Amino acid sequence: MCLDDLLSSDHRARQVWAYIESCDLTALYDGIRAVEGGSGRAAIDPAILMALWLYATLEGVGSARLLERECRSDAAYRWICGGVGVNYHTLADFRVGSGALLDELLTRSMAALVHAKIVDLSCLGVDGVRVRASAGASSFRSQSRLSQLHDLAGKKVEALKQELSTDPAGGSRRATERKLREAAERQQRIEAAQKAAEAIEAERAQEAVKQRRRKPKKGKPTRGSTTDAQARVMAMADGGYRPAYNLQFKTDPKTGCVVGIEATNKASDSGQLGTAADEIERRYGVQPKRVLADGGYANKHDIEALHARGIGVFCPLRKKDKPVCAASDPAAPDTDGRAKPKPKPKLKEKPGVVAWHERMGQEDSAAIYAERIVCERPHADVRNRGLYRFLVRGIEKVKAVALWHVTAYNFLQIQRLMPQAA
Predict the structure, then answer these.
(1) Please, are residues 130 and 174 in contact by the beta-carbon 8 Å criterion?
(2) Which of 213, 225, 216, 220 is nearest to 265 (CA)?
(3) Would 243 disulfide with which of 48, 135, 301, 387, CB 3.0-4.6 Å?
(4) Could you write out the three-class secondary structure of 55-79?
(5) Where are the beta strands (DSSP E) in 285-373?
(6) Which secondary structure element, helix H or strand E, spans residue 408, and what is its range?
(7) pTM here?
(8) Residue 272's CB: how many other CB atoms inside 10 A?
(9) Tens digits of per-residue pLDDT, 288-330?
(10) How far apart, in Å, do the first and last CA atoms of the chain sit?
(11) From residue 363, how far is each of 119, 196, 311, 358 by CA, in Å?
């Protein structure tokens, strides 16, 4: 039977293919095109790989091996392939290697909607979601243990090199070379974990200086993961602590489209508002007038910095940030007739923080802040499509996978907004 007869005229695979055909894939074609002074190479059309991964992400397929099996049995995947064979190595490499293109595609597609006055960047919703990393809790070791493991790995590498130089047998030589590669890779992972532990220690020292601590904060020694050195242990939504990454979504509350995405290994959302505004300005050349965020982003330094740039922050006040009576106000009498002690005056706040307090105390602030609920929609979408744990390691690959999910989510939003754009 003809492959084209297996799909209905309105099948999602056809919509995905039409969308990919409208995208600028010049950067991908330049990597395989024959040019003067060098020959081209036989390669799968990048449009096929793009369509495969976009459709797979929409269907909740996140494994390259599973996608390879689907391309042999499922009619929709076979229709996209059009008789071209694919293997999981090619699929996996393409998925994590196309992050730069997806990032550019996100900017171009949203900029077109901004130009059409459909997406509005004057108001920006910022929210984060933590996704478990491809590393176990037992892979985190202290600096002293990492030093011991590094010495053992170095001795193992030297022993295998010595064995290779003295063993002439071909079969055992190949096995020894494989063991040498594995030992060298483990040594590199341990070195990366040592650097990660040192970076965490430096971050803690910098935080102590910023918070003006006189005594060092008591806590567990810094640890690094020998599996994924860039992962960090974070508090998850269920109350547990696991290795994870923090994905920062920037959303247009008007349409629900994701206009920015960043992967970070910062366990806290505090201090991310300035970075979010910088990303929007870098992508689109404009900066928002309002930023909506939950209470985890309530950082006075960020709020003051955004106020200086003319950006108003709508973020719930913390209990300790709620306005208190001034010291000069008369104290109200207690029930027994005695006067209450006067509250201690707060330290003088900077103008941005004062404006934030006043802004959140106004009646219309609740209605404006309620628009932030739209920012939860992308989180639910990526969860429903199976993004509970990354199968890749390293923050660059993690961001590439996150960009695939953002592309899939925005694809559905664009399909919904197309009549309005027309």
Answers:
(1) no
(2) 225
(3) 135
(4) HHHHCCCCCHHHHHHHHHHCHHHHH
(5) 290-292, 312-314
(6) helix 395-421
(7) 0.83
(8) 22
(9) 999 999 988 888 889 999 999 999 999 988 766 655 433 334 4
(10) 37
(11) 26, 46, 19, 10
231 φψ region: left (φ > 0), alpha (ψ -120 to 50), beta (else): beta
The reported pLDDT for the residue numbered 332 is 46
Q: From its phi and psi, is residue 212 left (phi > 0), alpha (psi between -120 and 50) or beta?
A: left
pLDDT of residue 252: 93
% of the chain with per-residue pLDDT over 70: 86
Indicate if the pLDDT at residue 104 is higher than 70. yes
Map tokens 């040019």 to a residue.
35
Of 32, 16, 42, 25, nearest in space to 98 by CA: 25
Helices (H) and strands (E) in the chain, counts: 15, 8
For the residues of 83-122, what is the DSSP string, one character each? T----HHHHHHHHHH-HHHHHHHHHHHHHHHHHTTSS--S
Q: Are 331 and 339 in contact (CB under 8 A)?
A: yes
* Structural element, H or E, at residue 244: strand 241-251
The 10 Å Cβ neighbour count of residue 14 is 16
Residue 345 confidence (pLDDT): 42
Element spanning 223, H or E: strand 223-225
CA dihedral 21, 113, 131, 95 (to 10 degrees): 20
Q: Using one digit for the tens of pLDDT, what is the confidence trace for 264-282? A: 998 888 889 999 999 999 9
> Residue 374 carries which DSSP code?
G
pLDDT at 343: 43
Three-state secondary structure call for residue 82: coil
Q: What is the mean pLDDT of residues 330-340?
A: 50
On average, the pLDDT of the chain sits at 84
Instruction: Give the three-state DSSP class for 339.
Output: strand
